[in-house]
Amino acid sequence: MNAGDRVRVTRADVTNEGVLMPSSTDEYLVLKLDGGYNVGIDRDDADVEVLETDVYDIEDAQTESGGTSEIEFDEDLPTISLISTGGTIASTVDYRTGAVTAQFDAEDVLRAVPDLAGRANYRGRVVANILSENMTTDVWVDLAEAIAEEIEAGADGVVVMHGTDTMQFSASAMSFMLDTPVPIVFTGSQRSADRPSSDNVMNAVCAVEAAKADAAEVMICMHGSESDDVCALHEGTRVRKNHTSRRDAFQTIGAKPLGEVDYEAEEVTFRRDYTERDEEELALHSDLESGVELLKFTPGMDIAALDYLEDKAGLVIEGTGLGHVHTDFIPRIEELIENGTVVVMTSQCLEGRVCDRVYDTGRDLLDAGVVEAGDTLPGTAKVKLMWALANHSDPADAMGRNLEGELTERSVPWE
Fold first, then answer.
1. Interval 229-249: pLDDT, tens
2. Which ranges carry the L-asparaginase N-terminal domain (predicted)?
């Protein structure tokens, strides 16, 4: 039997039919089922029957998908830098465990998405090869420096391949760490490339189109609906992942998305004002204060949770409603502030802003020195505080001002 043969594989009481695919290990057979999914089967325990030979020409398919092609330079096309940090969009299936693992580099992404060909000249660069839950501030610094270097080298736009689970944090970090003259577009994939419902191709194509457009902003480009029609462009500091698995998991909070990319028409449109290409000069502000925590207050929380924060430089609290915590917490919070911790209040509510001037609890928090963050999203507030502590002489003042679109002047209905 050879890759490309249609086979029937029986293991224990389970029988599967499909096309035999190349495997990265001799220990496992890789079978593409008729539904489009791949499955790995222990070769030693499998009984294989070849039903038809050469049903699928694996070598031709790999060549057509760009497996051995070279990336040619076309002076009439813009240059887009593809930076990989890992994640599902740059992942494949580990047939030893059956899990999805991040292991493609940026050039592998080009080979996996042949629709990218002819849209731009590409430079590939790997900053990290991690699942996004393993993201760290050190990687953020490396990423910001890599983006700056690519722009300095002449990139007309940057696309960052990133895992979706922490993408909003990284996009916020880049928003504060970089002044950019070109678009910086984060994209990822909710479903891996081996799944028939994968969103990796459309997201990657739309991200490149956004990176060629005129908005010199840090954006997240992901499916705008469950259909394969448009990708939404979300401002990096106003976006949140709101669903674990839907392809349109990302939403702009407190406003409509900045714009969208029509996948079929290959058109990019913007709904709101944005910084135009080349309006700003490139600047890198890569210092971050890592000693910042985000604390979600809940009823019944042990006040001893604050003891861990004794020596932290900053604390962002997700308070209830307008920005409250149990009144017993306030003296302890005041002690933290007196000892040098900058404490910032946000709300657990998805819409609206904190206002600690309405109720006694809020007024007591203000008297203790807590800083209101308006309608800044809690995750964005954490990243902003990490950046403000390292780059502003008065970080508390910076947290109360809009720096990168994270804080709106007032909250209004937008639907």
1. 999 999 999 999 999 988 889
2. 80-272
The topology (CATH level 3) of 292-400 is Rossmann fold (3.40.50)
Residue 89 CA to chain centroid, in angstroms? 10
What pTM value is reported for the model?
0.80
33 confidence band (pLDDT: 50, 70, 90): confident
**Beta-strand pair 239-241/250-252:** antiparallel
Contact 132, 157 (CB under 8 A): no
- Residue span(s) of the chain under CATH 3.40.50.40 come to 292-400
Thinking of the domain 5-52, which architecture would CATH place it in? Roll (2.30)
What does the alpha-carbon distance between residue 274 and residue 134 come to, in Å, rounded to a whole number?
A: 31
Given the residues 212, 241, 382, 384, select the one marked as catalytic.
241
- Fold assignment, 79-284: Rossmann fold (3.40.50)
The one catalytic residue in 164, 187, 252, 376 is 164
Radius of gyration of the chain (CA): 24
Enumerate the β-bridge partners of residue 222.
Answer: 232
